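[Q] Does anyone have a clean structure-token version of this?
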Amino acid sequence: MAIVNSPARVQKSCVPLDEIDHLLLDLVQADAARPLHDLGDAVGLSPSAVQRRLTRLRAEGVIRAEVAVLDPEALGAGMTSVILVALTDDDEKSHTAFRERMLAEPRVQHCYSIVGQWDYVVVLLTPDLKASRYLSRKLFDEHVKRFETLPAFEVVKSSQAVPVPGVSRGSGR
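[A] Here you go.
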């Protein structure tokens, strides 16, 4: 596999966090709209102290975004497909072009560069199998040697929650 320079390959240094930071992070990743006074009650701080910590965590890039998690089925996109992809050429140009296509397509939920017989794992969200096939033909052009689509039968767990050190309870969905 070609080594492609990308922001994902740059390892960030670990930001020093204390136990209260860990607790706050676990709480806000479960519910970013939770009021400051509720967060303060949960961690033993005033709302203004919680706000200062959250502002620092955002500024340091520990909190990257605060988003609403939507129900795909409610929006007519209830089909998840996991797709294994092998590129025809293992050069930087091919990988860059593939990554750009994945980044440009909103129905690509995740795209991971992997090691082994496949080059990428792509997760698509579409209305149905027909739409998944159509999108795959569009995305996986002549630069893709082969791909294997694994339609998901059932979502057992779907979460973006990051395990927070020192916090034993799970807040993932």
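[Q] Thanks! Anything notable?
[A] The two ends are 34 Å apart (CA to CA).
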